[in-house]
Amino acid sequence: MPGEVISTPHAPSFPSYSQAVKAGDTVYVAGTIGVDVKTGEFAGDTVQEQTRQALRNCEAILLAAGAAGLGDAVMVHTLLRRPEDADGVNEVFDEFFPGVRPPRCVSRLGVERPGILVSIAMVAVVG
User: Which residues contact 104 (CB under 8 A, 6 or more apart)?
Assistant: First the structure.
């Protein structure tokens, strides 16, 4: 693999893919959902609750890769189960990115899994 696999117990993990890969100073974070690793459950039933937790999980992965936090993100890809939840996601992004916001694209979640309302992937530059 042309990069270092990043793994942390502070974010959900799945056996079929890495949480992230660091190639040079760039970190590629896989789609991350709003599951609280302490409970193993979704952080809530609203897109806002799940988005907050997904961003916390992304931040834990970035920290494990040597980032200072979410502020190192240079691109975010948000996948939504329901397009009408975009405003709820924007509300949470305003909380987590109060200054300069990274570029972002939004797509529809292609795989329907029970309970998942949002998945967030990102690219960050560290160092």
Answer: 75, 76, 77, 78, 93
* Sheet of 20-23, strand order: 4-6, 20-23, 26-33, 118-125, 73-80, 104-108
Q: For residue 4, what are its two tokens?
A: 């270092």
pLDDT digits (tens, 9 = 90+) for 90-113: 999 999 998 888 999 999 988 778
17 DSSP assignment: B
Q: For residue range 6-21, list pLDDT tens digits in order.
A: 999 999 998 889 999 9
User: In this structure, are residues 34 and 49 in contact, taking their beta carbons and an 8 Å threshold?
Assistant: yes
pLDDT one-digit tens code per residue, 34-45? 999 999 999 999
DSSP, residue by residue, 50-116: HHHHHHHHHHHHHHHTT--SGGGEEEEEEEESSGGGHHHHHHHHHHH-SSSPPPEEEEE-SS--TT-
Note the pTM of the prediction, 2 decimals: 0.94
Q: Which tokens go with 25?
A: 């100073």
